[in-house]
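In the current project phase, the collection of sequences with tokenised folds has grown. A representative record is quoted in full directly below:
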Amino acid sequence: MTSVHEYKRLENKLVLKIKDVFLLVAGFLIDIFKVFGRFLTRRYTIVFVPHSEKKVYNLHVTVLSIFCFIMVVFGIFGAFFFYGTSYNSGMYTMASKDGRLRDTQASLDQLRDETALLFREARNFESTLSEVLSALGLGARSNSSQNTHGDLSSFLGIRETPEGLLHEVDDIRKLTAYLSQAVEPIKEIGTLLDSQSALLTEIPSLWPVRGGIGNITMFFGQNINPISGQYYIHKGIDIATHRSGDPVVATADGQVVTAEWAYDFGNYIIIRHKHGYYTRYAHLQAFRVSVGQRVQQGEVIGYIGNTGISTGPHLHYEVHIGSDVVDPYRYITIRSSMARQGR
């Protein structure tokens, strides 16, 4: 029991001390506020004395009003500074965007110029493609769907699209559609050229001396025999390089059916080709192939020589269709004439 009473007494003393401290602090704060309040409410008189005999003006102010006035002034100046800085920043941003806008406009103008040039070249492409298709017998493509989406003549009447897009965008879409449709006829051209190229390897259309060297010293047809001096029908062409040993090549794909020596032709080779063609290569120095061997166009089959009845190193070259002998020069010039047509 004694300990409980002592604990209560100590507790009461602690509460009283805390209360005294709180009252002391509160009194101190109240005194400070009173001093500060008296300072803020202290009155001052500002006297305006004119340099004449007019009435003197007295302005009564307090510290609080002066403080409020200073705060208002600083607030006004701070607002001016803030908004001035924001205005300058905004002006700089607008100037920068205006510069970028001008650059974008210049790029757009350049894009329009390039687009116009592209359309002109596209019209030329359409015209050239139509001419090529007509020349090759493929014909021009003209159906309703292609005329709706791919006809380049629609570019002559440029108009705004319903979606409000730039008309250049609409025209580029049409050009894209046209070019995608132009792929098919171009593929047909490639197929046709491939077939013609394959055909050229099957007919004797290549110069029979490798590298295209040599000159024709006697053409096909009626000529004077250099041995007898009499007129006779020359059944081929003679090609001379003025030396022996130059490579002779097959003028078309085929199979060697003869590789032997004869009194008049000397060493000679006969190759059978497709479509009933045969070619003969005579007066050879040596063979490079054997009977039954398959050869490709441009493959070396022998070498120019002076064997048989010959007045010097040369190649006697013949082309046969079945049992008929034809002018080889007409076939040799096929490639060059097709190349000129291609240009």
DSSP finds six helices and 14 strands in the chain. The longest helix spans residues 63-136. Confidence is low (pLDDT under 50) at residues 141-165, 337-343.
